[in-house]
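Lab notebook, bench 4. The sequencing result for the construct came back, and we need a structural model before the next group meeting so we can plan mutations. Quick request posted to the team channel:

Model the 3D structure of this chain.
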Amino acid sequence: MSVKKQFAKTKPVCKVTFTVAAKEANAVSVVGDFNNWDATEGELSKLKNGTFKAAFDMPKDNSFEYRYIVDGAYVNEPEADSYRWNAFANAENSVLEV
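Done. Here's the predicted structure in C-alpha cell form:
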C-alpha cells in the first residue's frame, strides 16, 4: 500500500494516488472524509499486475481520515501520515495530510 502526493503549483489542490497490492482481492476502495465514506466514489481500478490504483484531487491544507476496504474488510494504510481514534468505528483511521 502506498500514497503518493503531487501538489499543483497553480491550483490549491493535491493529486493523491492510492495504490494497494492485493492480487487475490476482487474489489478495493478507499473511503474517508473526502468522499463521505462512500465506497462507490472511492473505487480503485485493478491493474494487470494485481495492484489496485486510483487518483483523486483533494483540497490542499487539509487533514482527512480514511481507510481501505479490501473485499469488505477495513484496512489502514501502514504508511499513513498519522492515525486518529474514531469512536464511531471503534477503531483507528489512517490520516492523510495535504
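The beta strands are 2-7, 13-21, 28-32, 45-46, 51-59, 63-70, 73-75, 82-86, 91-97.
Will bring this to the meeting.
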